[in-house]
């Protein structure tokens, strides 16, 4: 609740500071009934120093993932790509050398997303990467509401867990618990698609009041705690 109040307050300020009024639609109330699953792959893991090399977004309407309404783009980074990042997402500098720049990609991405809420796995990282460019382009941060599937999963599985419960919020652990088939990770479209599936399942669980069972650990000898 506190975060939502801060987000709205920041959005009011950013709307006044918006450098290009043609993007005022980002601040309009969303009446589409949709959310957008977003994922970025980057040239490294330093938000300040590294760049987006691919970005994908998929619209979700109710419990339907609209795979016919997607956005995906390779992006030519301004910084050299770290070997460690290349090993993760398998995109080489040769793969993105002829891609568009982020300044060319961002307007199309923003019009695709609009003011819809954003969904993702650790979506705050993706939003912070996007904001790095958006501030330079429009003098604002993304005002969109955010839903992190790891937080939704935590609430469904660990929200009433006793102190000391071992918590596992890994991407693979969430997918396994929800019965999802793992697609090759660290591909922006695949990750956005799996995050969309996680979101749809977890939202349905919320609506139906269904919780994810936690595995009970057998007590040690002499341990009579419940």
Tell me about this structure:
- The protein is of the alpha/beta class and 226 residues long.
- 41% of the residues lie in helices and 16% in strands.
- Strands 3-2-1-4-5 form a five-stranded mixed β-sheet, with helices on both faces.
- Helix 6 (149-158) packs parallel to helix 8.
- The longest helix has 21 residues, at 188-208.
- It is globular, with a radius of gyration of 19 Å.
- Residues 34-208 form the Exonuclease domain.
- Keywords: Exonuclease, Hydrolase, Nuclease.
Question: Which features does this protein show?
Answer:
five-stranded mixed beta sheet, 16% strand, globular, disordered C terminus
The gist of it:
With 226 residues, the protein is an alpha/beta fold. It has a domain at 2-148: Ribonuclease H-like superfamily/Ribonuclease H (Nucleotidyltransferase, domain 5), CATH 3.30.420.10.
Widest sheet, order of strands: 3-2-1-4-5
Number of helices, counting only DSSP H or I runs of 4 residues or more: 8
- Major sheet summary line: 5 strands, mixed
Which structural class matches the secondary elements? alpha/beta
Question: How would you spell out the order of helices and strands?
Answer: HEEEHHHEHEHHH
The assigned CATH architecture of the domain at 2-148 is 2-Layer Sandwich
Kindly provide the name of the CATH class of the domain at 2-148: Alpha Beta
Helix content: 40-55%
GO biological process, one term: DNA metabolic process
Organism: Rhodoplanes serenus
GO molecular function: 3'-5' exonuclease activity; nucleic acid binding
Keywords: Exonuclease, Hydrolase, Nuclease
């Amino acid at each position: 609740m506190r975060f939502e109040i801060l987000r709205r307050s920041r959005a009011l300020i950013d709307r006044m500071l918006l450098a290009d009024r043609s993007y005022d639609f980002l601040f309009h109330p969303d009446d589409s009934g949709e959310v957008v699953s977003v994922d970025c792959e980057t040239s490294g893991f330093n938000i300040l120093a590294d760049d987006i090399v691919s970005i994908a977004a998929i619209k979700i309407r109710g419990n339907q993932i609209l795979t016919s309404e997607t956005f995906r783009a390779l992006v030519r980074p301004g910084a050299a790509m770290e070997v460690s990042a290349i090993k993760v997402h398998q995109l080489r500098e040769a793969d993105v050398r002829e891609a568009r720049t982020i300044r060319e990609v961002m307007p199309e991405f923003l019009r695709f997303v609009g003011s819809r809420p954003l969904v993702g796995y650790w979506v705050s990282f993706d939003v912070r990467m996007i904001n790095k460019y958006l501030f330079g382009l429009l003098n604002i941060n993304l005002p969109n509401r955010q839903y992190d599937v790891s937080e939704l999963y935590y609430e469904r599985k660990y929200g009433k867990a006793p102190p000391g419960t071992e918590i596992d919020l890994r991407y693979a652990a969430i997918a396994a618990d929800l019965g999802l088939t793992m697609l090759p990770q660290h591909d922006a479209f695949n990750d956005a698609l799996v995050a969309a599936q996680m979101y749809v399942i977890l939202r349905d669980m919320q609506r139906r009041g269904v919780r994810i069972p936690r595995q009970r650990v057998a007590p040690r000898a002499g341990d009579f705690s419940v």
